[in-house]
Specification:
There is one protein chain. By secondary structure, the protein is α+β, with helices and mostly antiparallel strands. Helix content is 27%, strand content 37%. The protein is built from 4 helices and 7 strands. Strands 1-2-3-4-5-7-6 form a 7-stranded mixed β-sheet. The radius of gyration is 15 Å and the shape is globular. The two termini are 19 Å apart. 21% of the residues are buried.
Length: 135
């Protein structure tokens, strides 16, 4: 079972060890914002999620990372489901996320029941596909 909890300064060492972690000063700044959740399995941190609430009404999952050594164990899918439950408990009935059109993550989101709801292209980069899921 996976649970999520708000990240705090005690999570810095875990977060610094992740593949795409920013430097420690930036991590401290991010943690002050309060929208970082730590995914926990058997009292061990197994990943993190970053989200925002767009216009005060739409939870948007900006980023999820599971350490390479822990991938393939369904921690990502279970972490997303835990985040969705958290958003539902806050009264939201729809969540959003996005990913690059040229990456494999789009298949993950569709498998998780998310449906395409738009795309954005900027400065010659691959399109960003947006997904939504009713809770």
């Amino acid at each position: 079972m996976i649970s999520i909890r708000p990240a705090d300064l005690t999570d810095i060492d875990f977060l610094k060890g992740l593949e795409l972690a920013p430097n420690e000063a930036k991590l401290k700044e991010i943690l002050q914002g309060g929208n970082i959740q730590i995914a926990v399995a058997d009292h061990t941190s197994v990943g993190f999620l970053s989200f925002s609430i767009l216009w005060g009404t739409l939870p948007f999952l900006e980023f999820i990372e599971i350490p390479v050594s822990l991938r393939g164990r369904k921690f990502g899918a279970r972490s997303v489901r835990a985040w969705e439950q958290e958003m539902k408990s806050r009264g939201f009935d729809l969540v959003l996320t996005s990913t690059n059109a040229d990456g494999d993550a789009q298949h993950f989101w569709r498998k998780m029941g998310y449906v395409d709801c738009g795309a954005l292209t900027v400065r010659g980069k691959a399109a960003e596909i947006f997904f939504q899921r009713l809770l």
